[in-house]
Amino acid sequence: MSEQRRQSIIIVGGGASGVILAAHLLRSSATALRVTLVEKRDTFGQGIAYSTSLDDHLLNVSAMGMSALAHDPEHFWRWVRRHGYAGDADAPYYAPRRIYATYLREVLDDLVAAEPVRLRLVSEEAVSISTTATGVEVALANGSSLIGHACVLAAGHDEQPETQRSFSVRIDGAYDGPIDPDATVLILGTGLSMVDAWLSLEARGHRGQVVALSRRGLLPSPHKVGKPIRLDAADIPLGTELSYFVRWFRDLVRATEARGGDWRDVIDGMRPFNQKIWQSWPASAKRRFMEHTKAWWDVHRHRMAPKIHEKLSQAVEAGRLRLVAGRLAGVEQVADAFTVSVEHRQNRRAEALDVARIYDCTGITKDPSLGSIRIVRALIDQKLARPDAMKIGLDVTRDCAIVDADGASSSVLYAVGPLTRGAFFEIDAVPDIRAQCSAFAARLVP
Length: 446
Hints:
Blueprint: E1 8-12, H1 16-25, E2 34-39, H2 75-82, H3 97-114, E3 119-123, E4 126-131, E5 136-140, E6 145-148, E7 150-153, E8 185-188, H4 192-204, E9 210-214, H5 242-258, H6 263-270, H7 274-280, H8 283-301, H9 306-318, E10 321-334, E11 337-344, E12 350-355, E13 358-360, H10 374-381, E14 401-403, E15 409-415, H11 421-424, H12 430-444
Parallel strand pairs: 1-2, 1-7, 2-3, 7-15, 8-9, 8-13, 9-10
Antiparallel strand pairs: 4-5, 5-6, 10-11, 11-12, 14-15
Helix pairs in contact: 1-3, 1-12
């Protein structure tokens, strides 16, 4: 991609992915480069993940791994120490996410100060994109538009529940009003999003039981200091069916534990290869993973800070948090509350629960064409984009180019971050996003 043709880049989404991409694009020495960062929120650098003000909403990766800059992996850790949040003796330090939002904003402020010409911030919602003879035109909610040579979607996570779950709400969302502090509430999902929701309820002073429901009822594991094993790509059975890969992985865990190691050492040692593993699998393996293995993988791979795991474990022991393996079999609204039917996984027993609120913490939107990200829906409606085969994001190439309804990859429309799960899968955490943004920026603006 030549510098002359790729002078003006519009990034839609000014959360973590957008800020990180802007930082990597502006590492280029191209004087003709212009980067426009568009964010519908009033504040850049937050998105959903880092907009919380609750101190117990901690990062799930230690500060040592949370640099926004691929070329400077200890950037955030130095920032944390310089601002007095932690010292060397506190490592590993899991910072409150609100602090990380401050860090990202400072990274952006530094970019604005250093790049008054090449960087522009626009606080407005992008609602649609059209291709032009020379690139793209991005329409904004206020009626104006932006013209550029290329547009990159960095819209991040969907903020609203799926349409088929109209009875549920997001914690602290627009429809999450006050409830009786002694009432029972139901949370759909038992992963890290559920942990956030439970912590929010605790901070409100909620005293009633919280029932967390998922197919397996598994709580994410805690982090533990260890020593990741060293692997080479040649050690990993790439391209095999899922059953073979799972057997290989379990044998590796057993061998590591027999040597005095920990299962975390295996998972952390595999991290550099996770995207390559996903991309090597046939479609059948990917489907079986999503259906049968993902829940198990998530609770081991996406771990929580030890301090938070201890709080959750105490709540489970005290009965304030109840983990249920099963499925939601029925929902009946009664005035402002609900009577729900839960079918237990092990014995198929049905249980009726009266709950004041149902929170959706199931994570990945199952079909982006049904989600709440306006510009994503618009692109799909315009047939300029399509959901990936798993329907967990947009269909993109390994170079992040968006694939249209006819299967053609765009030369002007791209996506980074969580929207690209179908191609990269492990692309929700900052260490993975910064690596993706670094490589993509180098291709887009050499």
